[in-house]
Amino acid sequence: MQIKSIEELKKIREKSMKKVMLREHGQEDADQIEVLVGMATCGIASGARETLNAIVDEVSKEGLENVKVIQVGCIGHCHSEPIVQVNMPGQKPILYGKVNSQKGREIVQKHIKGGNPLKEFIIDATFDRA
Amino acid sequence: MNQFRMNVMVCGGTGCMASDSDKVIQNFEKLIKEYEYDKEVQIVKTGCFGFCEQGPIVKIEPDNVFYVRVHPEDVEEIVKEHIIKGRKVDRLLYQEPIKHEKIEQHKKMPFYKKQLRIALRNCGLINPEDIYEYIAFGGYEALGKVITSMTPMEVIETVKKSGLRGRGGGGFPTGLKWEYTRKFDSNTKYIICNADEGDPGAFMDRSILEGDPHSVIEAMAIGGYAIGAEEGIVYIRAEYPLAIERLSIAIRQARELGLLGKNIFGSDFHFNIRLKYGAGAFVCGEETALINSVEGKRGEPRNKPPYPAEKGYWDRPTCVNNVETFANIPPIILKGSDWFSSIGTENSKGTKVFALAGKVNNVGLVEVPMGTTLREIIYDVGGGIVGNHKFKAVQTGGPSGGVITEKDLDTPIDYEHLMEIGSMMGSGGMIVMDETNCMVNIAKFYLEFIMEESCGRCTPCRIGTKRLHEFLSKITKGKATMEDLDALKQLSYMIKDGSLCGLGQTAPNPVLSTLEYFWDEYLAHVKDKHCPTGECKVLAKYSISKEKCVGCTACAKVCPVDCISGKVKETHVIDQSRCIKCGACFDACNFNAVIKP
């Protein structure tokens, strides 16, 4: 395919962005929304990998550029695995429990995109989160 | 297209490849497939990260974890621990050499903290063999902007205003060069990329071509548009096979997408690039010699003027720019000349890439704003001197430059300041020497290089450098007289004044600058027949200290000529007449009893 205008170049750029987006985010730390997915043994056993992939997929579909999805170790609430923590800049982190892939997609849609946390899935954590 | 959730970036630069990074990549690909993660995890072979000392480098995104010295057998642990379980592999994290802290994010490492990467912006970030990754990071947008919305003169003005100067070493203002070449009227003009990197210790051009070839291609097209050339030539040394391969792939991809060829971006601008292999002669980095070589003649320089801007390749107006210079062009076009000129010092704008080598902890490729001091480069970025030795000197600018000593370490680096302290920017090779390096020997090393690389066209350079080398050999063998030292100095000035091109004119620089700063060391060689560092083997005299020797026999065991005698638990003695000065006993002794020199 030949690029014949700057608009065509930009279209190709947008398409290619998705492929390298993860890296762009790794480079910049400012104003990032972080989505942490617990991927310790217990998390993986209860399906965290599917959740993680669903979240990555949803973030990419929506083209959310300031979201970084990171797999982390044990978050500490094994009874509620898979666990997803959402860190919005300037807000207290929110911890979700029993997040299957369907719920993962909802978190992206309603919380990250819409700004409304899904109250019913929040774990009532007593620790002062990092 | 698959959506990957994780990228494993493995360095594919020559340095890391030499320490098996291709095997690391193969192992990753194999294991990721075995564990059926190949649809979620992408392995990317990148260009040089610059941290060559710590190679092979593996960076994992988006976690932003930077693993160093990853051997093929470490891959399984990274896959099982990090990729599958999300746990960091602690032992492969970088350990800071001074405080011994483990650091996982590359931005927090002192090596990267003081760096600002413009020319190297994509090295280590993208897959150089995939044009779409370059486009994703804004690639070819500068070319599009230039062709569709700027006149050639506006392009030249932007480059002029940015203050960009030639990164090959001379430091000539790039925009001015473009303007001169544009000024001369001709139907055919050429733009040449000088990728003949010959300085001992320099490898920035190679790394840029290996890690981000499209940035050079894009910039050449921009330059072609600005000066009115439709043909670009990359003169690249044949010793750079990986750079040649990646460049060829990149040119092919650019042609396929119509970014090279006819009617680029639908305009009436045509531009194409071809490669010309050089045989790797140092003098061919000089532009007139380079042009001769591209024409198929011997790589010999000629007098200037006429400058290539008027009469270059086949006597047509030709613009020759260095690889690193080109790599700076697209960001200047996209971000503007004000942005670029806000970085650096008054007369030297932007950044400079240095190849840091020699006796520093973090050997590698670094890019810092102009005006950074040598001390910052050596101690902060470079992590200080290996083995807690004492800093002695740093050679900048390769053979054409000179040595810089402790007293000038706080000089901010730019074209002018380096000239002031008797050295030069050159291509940016930076070789650090410690107290164990003999400066006469260093001068001899450079002169040997120069002597072999002289094209032979003019007598002062052809014969003069050979004589200089002979004098230096005599000194290091303890056979020279004070008259020889005088002759050495006089000859140096004669070669400087009488040579035809930059190679000869700068050839004596290593001699003159070491004579100036390390006169004592020359004197010791000539008068006392003694090499203070012990590096000159012929002058070295190894002996054993009676007080310190415990009679462990370690030295006698390693001596290849059995010239060390002595019984167990008694002092040993070296037979000077038979000693071959190999230094094996010095290395073997655990009690510092062997005295050198």
TrEMBL record, chain B:
Domain of life from the UniProt record: Bacteria
For this UniProt record, the keywords arranged alphabetically read as follows:
Iron, Iron-sulfur, Metal-binding
**What Pfam family is a match for this entry?**
SLBB
Q: Where is the 4Fe-4S ferredoxin-type domain?
A: 540-569, 570-597
The record's SMART domains line, in alphabetical order, gives: NADH_4Fe-4S (SM00928)
Q: What InterPro entries has UniProt attached to this entry?
A: 4Fe4S_Fe-S-bd (IPR017896), NADH-UbQ_OxRdtase_51kDa_CS (IPR001949), Nuo51_FMN-bd (IPR011538), Nuop51_4Fe4S-bd (IPR019575), Soluble_ligand-bd (IPR019554)
The protein's name is NADH-quinone oxidoreductase subunit NuoF
